[in-house]
């Protein structure tokens, strides 16, 4: 019989307190490193980085926002846009372009949480095969996209941007449908916004999120090289 204390210890984070011990605002730790081992350890334990005032901070909010695949809402107008193929959509063709777009589009350049250090850290994760992007193109111009981190059967969507109307919406819908087609179990969007609520995003208690995360981490899935699901 496995000692439950051993199991709990083996599942403990190497760098962070337990996620359920976060403060009321979700803050779990300040400082640390943005190396791949720190970032992957954080995501595996329901924690993510979000710098504040130039200081590296780590969070595990309660409640937690997710998009349930079966609850994805696509308006008729957006579905017509998807069907009409006004855009060309790819994955992992220009990760740097997407994350830089997320940091600078819509006048975010001077108020973004995506610091240079954080962008470089996610680019390293991408090169290691842990972070992925969905790109939306008009001819040869990158006009929108989204990116996130994949760990087991959990995908943490981090940010999205657009330069042309509907481009970020197309990226999000294609990402959700791709993840469902590939067998992912949990799509984490961290915090609910009015924009994501329109797509059917909801909030669940942190305890429920952490339980689902533990299960999702055991899933044997990969992101793949081409987008699936329409």
Short description:
This protein has 230 residues and is of the alpha+beta class. The chain has helices at 4-10, 36-44, 76-84, 95-104, 116-127, 167-182, 194-197, 206-216; strands spanning 27-30, 48-49, 57-59, 64-66, 88-91, 131-138, 141-151, 154-162, 186-190, 202-204.
Please, could you describe this protein's structure?
The protein folds into two domains: 4-61, Leucyl/phenylalanyl-tRNA-protein transferase, N-terminal domain (Alpha-Beta Plaits), CATH 3.30.70.3550; 65-216, 3-Layer(aba) Sandwich (Aminopeptidase), CATH 3.40.630.70. It has helices at 4-10, 36-44, 76-84, 95-104, 116-127, 167-182, 194-197, 206-216, and strands spanning 27-30, 48-49, 57-59, 64-66, 88-91, 131-138, 141-151, 154-162, 186-190, 202-204. The strands form two sheets. Strands 5-6-7-8-9-4-10 form a seven-stranded mixed sheet, sandwiched between helices. The chain has a three-stranded antiparallel sheet with strand order 1-3-2, with helices on one face. The protein is of the alpha+beta class. Helices cover 34% and strands 23% of the residues.
Keywords:
single chain; about 230 residues; alpha+beta; Alpha-Beta Plaits; Aminopeptidase; 2 domains; 7-stranded mixed β-sheet; 3-stranded antiparallel β-sheet; 8 helices; globular; disordered N terminus
């Amino acid at each position: 019989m496995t000692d439950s204390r051993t199991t709990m210890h083996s599942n403990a984070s190497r760098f962070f307190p337990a996620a359920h011990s976060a403060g009321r605002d979700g803050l779990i730790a300040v400082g640390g490193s943005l190396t791949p081992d720190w970032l992957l350890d954080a995501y595996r334990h329901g924690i993510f980085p979000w710098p504040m005032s130039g200081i590296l901070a780590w969070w595990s909010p309660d409640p937690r926002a997710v998009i349930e695949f079966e609850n994805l809402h696509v308006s008729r107008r957006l579905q017509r846009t998807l069907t009409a193929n006004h855009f060309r959509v790819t994955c992992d063709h220009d990760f740097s372009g997407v994350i830089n777009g997320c940091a600078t589009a819509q006048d975010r350049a001077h108020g973004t949480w995506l610091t240079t250090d954080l962008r470089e850290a996610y680019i390293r994760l991408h090169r290691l095969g842990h972070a992925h992007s969905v790109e939306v193109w008009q001819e040869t111009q990158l006009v929108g996209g989204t990116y996130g981190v994949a760990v087991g059967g959990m995908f943490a969507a981090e940010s999205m941007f657009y330069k042309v109307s509907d481009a970020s919406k197309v990226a999000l819908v294609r990402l959700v449908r791709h993840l469902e087609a590939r067998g992912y179990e949990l799509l984490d969007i961290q915090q609910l916004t009015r924009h994501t609520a329109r797509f059917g995003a909801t909030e669940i208690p942190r305890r429920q999120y952490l339980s689902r995360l533990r299960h999702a981490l055991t899933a044997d899935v990969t992101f793949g090289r081409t987008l699936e699901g329409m």
